[in-house]
Amino acid sequence: xxxxxxxxxxxxxxxxxxxxxxxxxxxxxxxxxxxxxxxxxxxxxxxxxxxxxxxxxxxxxxxxxxxxxxxxxxxxxxxxxxxxxxxxxxxxxxxxxxxxxxxxxxxxxxxxxxxxxxxxxxxxxxxxxxxxxxxxxxxxxxxxxxxxxxxxxxxxxxxxxxxxxxxxxxxxxxxxxxxxxxxxxxxxxxxxxxxxxxxxxxxxxxxxxxxxxxxxxxxxxxxxxxxxxxxxxxxxxxxxxxxxxxxxxxxxxxxxxxxxxxxxxxxxxxxxxxxxxxxxxxxxxxxxxxxxxxxxxxxxxxxxxxxxxxxxxxxxxxxxxxxxxxxxxxxxxxxxxxxxxxxxxxxxxxxxxxxxxxxxxxxxxxxxxxxxxxxxxxxxxxxxxxxxxxxxxxxxxxxxxxxxxxxxxxxxxxxxxxxxxxxxxxxxxxxxxxxxxxxxxxxxxxxxxxxxxxxxxxxxxxxxxxxxxxxxxxxxxxxxxxxxxxxxxxxxxxxxxxxxxxxxx
Length: 505
Description:
This protein folds into four domains: 11-104 and 455-474, von Willebrand factor, type A domain (Rossmann fold), CATH 3.40.50.410; 110-204, Immunoglobulins (Immunoglobulin-like), CATH 2.60.40; 207-371, Class I glutamine amidotransferase (GATase) domain (Rossmann fold, 3-Layer(aba) Sandwich), CATH 3.40.50; 380-443, Immunoglobulin-like.
């Protein structure tokens, strides 16, 4: 296309993904134009032609007889081109828009369209990774999905997908150390970028838990099986009220002398010395309602729980009742700025609750509620998105070093406690050095529309053959003086021939 420019033609080079970039202003210098085109670096960012077309129409108005030539696979058609197809008079400018398709007919592609880390719905302290794979080909595809954690192969699963079919799957039971999680499709297709996806798996810190109990093997086992917890068990006479190293303290049938700031679970404490006023005993209470939407009771079913012993509790106005037996509260929570309390008004050892799956779930959910987080902090972006992170101004951190997936690094200043980084055009892991700490962010394409590389329906009506687009450039390809020189040479040759012929005659 550059080689076929006429001497009177000028060309501007514009590339686009989410935003257009002008690589060369209008010029007829072919070497500069080739250099501009060669300088365009492929990215993993999804494409939006609309802004680039708007820029092209805007600058085209400054030139006579302008043409806009768009090269794309046209898996999506901008609204302006659709309007042009339906109404030729609906163009944004006088520029003639010509479309040249690249990769048209190359429709074999399989891609990862989702790869996200979230809290497990079963284990409050585990993570789940949701993977979705789409077969955007016109034929059935069979391949393996490989899962790597810190570059070590973790799992391999075979997939067979029909044309247009997608499949989602959960991966669980990761190590507490966390790390860099990567999913790889072992398949050859037209687009390799969406064959790999990345996720940052957070490190799970242990939670120091103190259980004060005369003896409760069910409760102790429910806590001990969770590797997330650093459990210490003591008898009531061994409890130190001054202990501050525990994030959660559970009192089973025991009243502490005082309750300071912190997270406390009190299970059927004695009436004497209880933090709230205790009323009469309840014989064989029946659970009639519970707050299913509260984090502590998430995925918990309390139908037909057999309870032998409980008591009435005078609930303070600042507390909320989560489980009731008609009008009597059985599970109460109270939350203030620096303290959280969970109060259980039943003796768990005198019920069948410890024999149900609901018991360890309530215990795990309670500790998660104490942590104040129902979701993990997410460290993932789509390519092209801006990485935003709040930095504590008290830390006096002035800049953050970011290392990208290709090995390049950036020193990004922190302004007003906020880090902003927009060089996320390549999928992969981005490592942040923040003071003495480190974080890993995962950046992915994971876009269903981008994995659909075949041309959108109806685009064939807008496409032109390359020969048609370039054919008009054959005339006056060179400056006029070239043609004048050729004519002069031709006339000189004719004159010489005629002169020689007269001499011979």
